Amino acid sequence: MNLRISNTYAIIDINDISKVDFSQVEQNSAETVRKSLDGSQFVLKWEIEPTFITDGTIVPLQTLSHSECLTLMSTPEWSEPIE
């Protein structure tokens, strides 16, 4: 049986980026996270909820499924319009 573990995506305020333990998430560093176009927010992805989320060190602005995250990433706040 092939079990697929689904990822959780969280939108985080950019001011919290220094609090992220990147060993607990899919991204490698602050330089590899996807940021909103205005630079005020970023996305983290994980399979197992990181301790910095469970202990309240960082409180996500939103927690999303993969499909919800894709929808958000296609908005004008996250993607440049294609000309």
Write the layout of secondary structure elements.
Layout: E1 8-13, E2 34-35, E3 41-46, H1 51-54, E4 62-64, H2 66-73
Antiparallel strand pairs: 1-3, 1-4, 2-3
Query: What's the arrangement of strands in the largest beta sheet?
Result: 2-3-1-4
C-alpha Rg, in Å?
13 Å
Count of extended strands: 4
- Kindly estimate the percentage of residues that lie in beta strands according to DSSP: 15-25%
Q: Which of globular, elongated, flat, extended, rod-shaped describes the shape? A: globular
Provide the number of structural domains.
1
Low-confidence spans: pLDDT under 50, at least 5 residues? Answer: none
Q: Round the mean pLDDT to the nearest integer and report it.
A: 93
The class by helix and strand makeup works out as alpha+beta
Number of helices: 2
Distance between the termini: 45 Å
Q: What string, H for helix and E for strand, traces the elements in order?
A: EEEHEH
Tell me about the biggest sheet?
A: 4 strands, antiparallel
Helix content: 10-25%
Describe this structure in words.
The longest helix has 8 residues, at about 65-75. The chain is about 15% helix and about 20% strand. The protein is globular. It has one domain. A four-stranded antiparallel sheet has the order 2-3-1-4. The protein has about 80 residues and is an alpha+beta fold. A hairpin with a 5-residue loop joins strand 2 (about 35) and strand 3. The N and C termini lie far apart (about 45 Å). The model has no long low-confidence stretch (mean pLDDT about 95). The chain is built from two helices and four strands.
